[in-house]
Amino acid sequence: MKILVTGATGKVGSRLAKRLVQRGHQVRALVRDLDRAATLRDAGVELARGDLLDVGSLATAVRDSEAVVHCAAFFRGATPEQAHAVNDLGTQNLAGVSRASSVGRFIFTSTGLVYGSNGGRLAGEDDPCAPTAAYPVSKLAAERFLLGVHGLDVRVLRLPFVYGDGDPHIAEAVPMMRRFSPTQRLSLGHHADVAQAVARLLDAPAPSHRIYNVVDDEAPDLATVNASVGAPPPDGTDAENGRAFGALLDGRRIREDLGFSPLYPRLADALAAGA
Length: 275
Known about the structure:
Helix content: 25-40%
CATH class: Alpha Beta
Radius of gyration: 18 Å
Low-confidence stretches: none
Order of helices and strands: EHEHEHEHEEHEEHEHEHHEHH
Number of helices: 11
C-alpha cells in the first residue's frame, strides 16, 4: 500500500513510518524540515516537504496515496490558538485534500486525554469526553470533524501514554508528574503496539468511521512508571492536578473487532525484553 504518514519526525510517527516500511508498504512522510528526516530517508521512506497549514503542499504529498496515517500534532508548549490551528484546522485541510485525492483510508491518531478527568475509571470509546487542556480539546474537535466527513474512510485511534523503542518519553514526563499521586495509574502503550494497531486498521475492510482505544493490558501506578527509569515516585503534593490525566482506557473494542493483542501487555514485559 502507498501510505502518507504525517508527524513522521515525532515520537510516534518516526517509529511507525519505519515499521510500515518493514511491512512492505511504500511510505511517504510529510515533513517540514528535510534535514531532520534524514534517518527516515535512510530507512526507505520517501520525503515530501510540506505543512498542514499549506494546502498546496498537502496536495502534492497526498498524490497517489492509498492511505493517510495522520500523526502530526502540536502538543507541548502550544497555546490554545496554536493547538487549534495545527491539530484541528490542519487536520481539516489534510482530510479535504485526502478526500479530493480519493484516498482509500484515513487513520487519525488522537489521544486518550480527550476523556478528561473521570475519576480514574475505564473510559470506553462511546463515553462522554470533557477535556480541558488545549491539546486534547483540539484533538477532540478534529475527531468530530473527521467522523462527520462523507466520502473518506476514517478510523480514529486514541493513544495512551506511548513508550518504548528507545523513546525517552517516560523520563521526560517525570518532572511534569513529580507532584502527582504516586498511586495514580497511567494507561500505557508500547510503540510496537501502536504500530500493530495502525496495521490492523489499514488491513481491516470495515468498519469505517469508528474510534478505537489502543492500550496495554495493565495500567501501572506512577511510582512503578517512574521506577522503570530509575526515578523516585511522585510526592503527591498536587494530586488534584494529576486528575486531568487520570482516565484509564478500555481496550476491549479493538481486541474484539480487529483481534488486537499487545506484544507487550505490561510495562514489565517491555523492560524484561529490553524494549
